[in-house]
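Board notes (copied after class):
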Amino acid sequence: MPENELMEQVSCRIPINCAGMRLDQVLAELLPAFSRSRLQHWIRSGDLQIDGRMVRPRERVLGGEMVSGALSLPTATEDQAQNIPLAIIFEDAEIIVLNKPAGLVTHPAVGNLDGTLVNGLLHHAPELANLPRAGLVHRLDKDTSGLLVVARTLRAHTELVRQLQARTIEREYEAVVNGVIVAGGTVNAPLGRHPVDRKRMAVVANGKPAVTHYRVLQRFGNHTHLQVKLETGRTHQIRVHLTHIRHPLVGDSVYGGRARIPAGLSESALRVITDFRRQALHAARLGLTHPGSGQRLYWNAPLPNDLEGLLATLREKTSRRYDEGTCGFQPPFYLSRLARTSAG
C-alpha cells in the first residue's frame, strides 16, 4: 500500500428492499461518504466484493448479499487550509460539533473553490485531510444556518455515517414559511433531480424516498413558524417538501419563497422582511450517539439574529392586528369560517 493511503475495512449487508437495483446505486446509499465513481472503481478492482466474489457495478442485487472489502483511501485532500472563524460548540478527540452561519459554503466546488467550511476545518484540525470529505458526515446548504457534526477519526466517521443511514442521528430545524399552516403533519414524497433544471431538486415518482415531519410553533397573519424534523436527508429536502405543500420557506429564491408582506407595516418592519434574502431555515437541534463513548448527546443552537429579527417583526404585526380586533380577541380562521357556514 502506498505511504499516502489509509485502509478502511467495510462490511455491510444489502437490504432486502433494494432487490433489483444496480449494485453501484445501492452502495451509494449504503456508503454515502464516498463518490459513485470511487465506489465503481473499487467494485471493478475487486476491492469491494459481494459474498466474496468480484462483480460489475451495474449488476443487479437480490437483497441480503454481504458487501465486504478493504478500501484504500488517499490521505491528503487538495483543499487548502484557511483561517476561517468557526463557531465550535463541542469538540473532543472524536468529533467536532459547530454552528455554521448562513452564507458559508460547506465544501469547495465550482464557483466556491475556497473560503468554505472545509477550508476552515482543515486549518483548525489538519488531520481531517486524511478523512473522506474532511470528516463531514452531513451538509447544510450555503444559506442554511445551524448545527453540523464532523468526525475527527476514520472510525468515528464510519460510525456516524452508519448512524445517519440507520436514521438514529436526530436533526431538528426551525423554519418560517409563507402562508398559515393549521396543524403539523408529515410530507412523504420521493425526491430527485428536476426533469428540466438539473440544479434543482423536485418531487418525482422515481426519486429517492424522503420523509419530513413538521409541527406548528406559531402562526402569524401571513406566515407560520415551524419545527421541522428530518427522517431522511436528501438534498434540499426541507425546501422542496415545504414548497410541495405550497408553503415555501421565506427568502428561498430557488423554490419560490418570496415573502408575503402584511399590510400596515412600518418602514423598518417592511425592511426586515424584504431584506431577508436567504431561506428562513436553521438547524437548531442535533442528537447522536458518541462514536467513542456510546453516550447519547444533544446540542442546541439559538436562532441567528436575522431569523430572530424576522420572527420579532411578524409577532409585532400579529399582536397589533389582534389588539385592534374585538376586545383584543381574534378567533382562529377555521372557527370564523364555521360560524359563517352555520349562520348561512
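Comment from the instructor: Residues 321-344 have pLDDT under 50 and may be disordered. The chain has eight helices and 14 strands.
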